[in-house]
Amino acid sequence: MNGSPLWLFHRIGEICAICGLLCFCIAADCGKHGKPETPDKPSGAFLGRTGELYRYSARNNNSDDTMSFQFDWGDSTSSAWTAYVHPGDVASDSHVFNRARSYGVSVRSRLPGITEPSDWSDTLLVRIAWAEGALKWSVALPAPGLSPAMSLDTLLLVPAGALYSFRSDGAERWTEHFGPVSTALSLASNQTAYCVSADSLVCLTLPNSVKWRFPAFARPGTGPALGSDGTVYVNDDVSLLAVNANGSLKWRYPVGDSVRSSPVIDASGTIYVGADDGYLYAVNPDGAGKWRYPTAGPITGNAAIAADGAVYVGSTDGYLYAFEPGGSLRWRYPTGDRITGGPVFARDYTLYVGSWDGFLHAVNPDGSQFWRYPAGGPIASTPAVGMDGVIYLGVENGQGFQAVNLDGTPRWRYAALDTAWSSPVISPDSTVYVSSGAGRVYAFQGFGRPVDSPWGMFQHDPRHTGRAGGQLP
Hints:
Number of strands: 39
Number of helices: 1
CATH class of the largest domain: Mainly Beta
CATH architecture of the largest domain: 7 Propeller
CATH superfamily of the largest domain: YVTN repeat-like/Quinoprotein amine dehydrogenase
Strand order of the largest sheet: 2-7-6-4
Structural class: mainly beta
Helix content: under 10%
Shape: elongated
């Protein structure tokens, strides 16, 4: 009966049942459309190289609703939210990693109309290595840089008005302002280095202690050579100097004009140096002249020594010369313009030399042309060769830094490097270092260690010993 206590009791029960059902439905709906479950970790490449595009994906495991996904790339950046995908379908996005290191890539999801996303998934570990030709780093210098040198512990030293030391990651270790540095650096060991500052040959105990000085005026861009007995050879205006390891003069050998090339030493201890009078001079270890040979122009680049003792040098007369150890001419190879850098060898004894005619010349051991590579501008410095046969060279006229295959085809090019007249050096970890005349030092990822040949870079090796048979770091 309406209004009776029993009827009222039944009505309250019905209302409570309806409320309970409603609460259940609301709860179920909230479970369906609230914060989504955490997705599985993304799938995609876990090994890669810098500068390349890699694609990663996530699957919608929700059985009822569409979902959108966002990826965290592990480098302080994330993707935009993807389009919504149906249950069981996959959403994906792509990313380029620009530094060589490990990254943790994760993903989260969200439902339509729900602002709160899921938690981030477990991370996919992605290991990225440097791509060949990648610029690993570059650092500004206050003055034009000369050819870098590497010590045994991969310390990079760049003369540029002072002496700068860098770690392999580009962080500066120390700077030494002991006077303006005018020549490339030669490293006798991890602790001892030689260069010319102002009017003195300086012996340094690294990192920043001057051990001794000896009066010498070496032309900018040249470098000392280090004898196996500790003797240091350096040019001094119109002379070749031999200085003992204690800083005393051993001997002085006069030449006919200014010396703008770096001296080099063969396995017997004979020293070779070119001069502006056009002669290549061979000097015995005791300072006595051994022989000399005239070319038709000043010699400004360093010579290279072959395993059989033959000597190769370029001249500003445009020819690459090959000499027997005794001084007789073996052959000469013509380029189209002057040669101001030195030649280098591949493992098969192919010679490479750059010329101001704009070509890198590959010359067979008999003096015939193998190929020539059009670099697009003058090549003023000495190239460097990697173990894999790739040749690295700086080119003038805005043509940057280039890598060339052993068959003479282009491999890669970095156009933004200007005034690339310093000689590159290859480190044991395959990094290629070069300085620019605009005042920067660059580190590129190469493809191999320094070549195991008689003479593979400026002054023979990464330490710039200038000595045939010297040990590579």
